[in-house]
Design brief:
Elements: E1 3-9, E2 23-28, E3 31-35, H1 41-48, E4 56-58, H2 64-67, H3 70-79, E5 86-91, H4 95-102, E6 113-118, E7 123-126, E8 130-136, E9 144-150, H5 159-164, H6 171-177, E10 182-183, E11 189-190, E12 204-207, H7 215-220, E13 226-230, H8 238-244, H9 249-259, E14 263-267, H10 278-285, E15 291-294, E16 300-302
Parallel strand pairs: 3-4, 4-5, 5-6, 12-13, 13-14, 14-15
Antiparallel strand pairs: 1-2, 1-16, 2-3, 7-8, 8-9, 9-12, 10-11
Helix pairs in contact: 9-10
């Protein structure tokens, strides 16, 4: 089952000629989600071919560079005849601002739109295959991060062993794989643990939005397959990072190492590094030996299942 992340906007605070403000598109099988909707997000969706079939929007906070693309996108969905309801999740204390933004030019959405406030540490979307949880972060506004955590998958079915035990191919295979014991024609009972391996882990993707490094993010990102972390500044602006409640690339990398993440993506890059983003990568690699990517608009990352899974 595919899990694909496309970066629609990777700039911090303001757009540049190469980077849009923050937005991340995530597609998991037949569902699609937007995390933040910076100015110009809908054009980026067209440009990079993500499709517009978004099931829900998750806002990390209500600063302009994370939300100003929302009213135009909602209006475009209406022009395109959308009828499916849309839910927008936003941190506590920001619902009124988001609702006012959606209606800023007197436009009433042509399909049902609900705006729901969320608190840190909550499960806000729960399905059999995955959950989406909020994470406490440290920014200079009400803010949360998000973690998509897949459920464990069934163990591998050992067809060869099942046949050795006399189980005929067909429905009994499925029943065993679903965890049900079966009785053969000769009265022999075959239990699932005889032919099904241990359960296999799903995947975890964490998106911080804007934040200082925090223990809550580190905990949520433990062994994560993909961590998308604020890396607004390099070491030369560490003081500015603390003042504005952002992270440096090195701080993000240090957290990733503590959490044992498999892949780190640095995003929300300050325009001051437009000609020298390599500096951010170098400083991050000093602090983390795992895979590091500096996000760029249009970059898509396929998140594989853990090895041996």
């Amino acid at each position: 089952m595919s899990l694909r992340v496309t970066f629609l906007g990777t700039s911090g605070a303001i757009p540049t000629t190469d980077r849009n403000p923050s937005s991340v598109f995530l597609r998991r099988s037949g569902e699609a989600f937007l995390f933040d909707v910076g100015e110009g997000t809908q054009r980026q969706m067209m440009r990079f071919g993500t499709g517009f079939d978004v099931d829900a929007v998750f806002l990390t906070h209500a600063h302009g560079d994370h939300v100003l693309g929302l009213p135009g996108l909602i209006q475009t969905w209406g022009f395109n005849g959308r009828s499916e309801p849309l839910v927008i999740y936003t941190p506590e204390g920001t619902r009124t601002s988001v609702v006012e933004l959606i209606h800023a030019i007197g436009h009433e959405p042509e399909f049902p739109v609900s705006v729901e406030e969320v608190s840190p540490g909550s499960t806000i979307r729960e399905r059999e295959e995955y959950t989406i949880r909020t994470i406490a972060v440290d920014h200079d506004a009400p803010a949360v991060g998000y973690a998509l955590v897949e459920a464990e998958r069934k163990g591998r079915f050992d067809r060869e062993r099942a046949e050795e035990l006399g189980v005929p191919a067909g429905p009994l295979f499925s029943r065993l794989h679903e965890g049900e014991s079966v009785e053969l024609e000769d009265g022999t009972v075959v239990d699932p643990d005889q032919v099904v391996g241990p359960s296999r882990p799903g995947r975890t993707v964490v998106y911080t939005g804007d934040t200082r490094p925090t223990h809550t993010v580190e905990s949520a990102a433990e062994d994560a397959d993909l961590l998308i972390h604020d890396a607004t500044f390099a070491d030369d602006e560490a003081g500015r990072a603390r003042e504005t409640r952002h992270s440096t690339a090195r701080e993000a990398a240090r957290l990733a190492g503590k959490a044992g993440v498999k892949q780190l993506v640095l995003t929300h890059v300050s325009p001051r590094y437009a000609g020298n983003t390599g500096l951010l990568l170098r400083e991050a690699r000093d602090a983390f030996d795992g895979e590091i990517v500096l996000a760029e608009d249009g970059r898509t990352i396929e998140v594989p299942y853990p090895e041996s899974a």
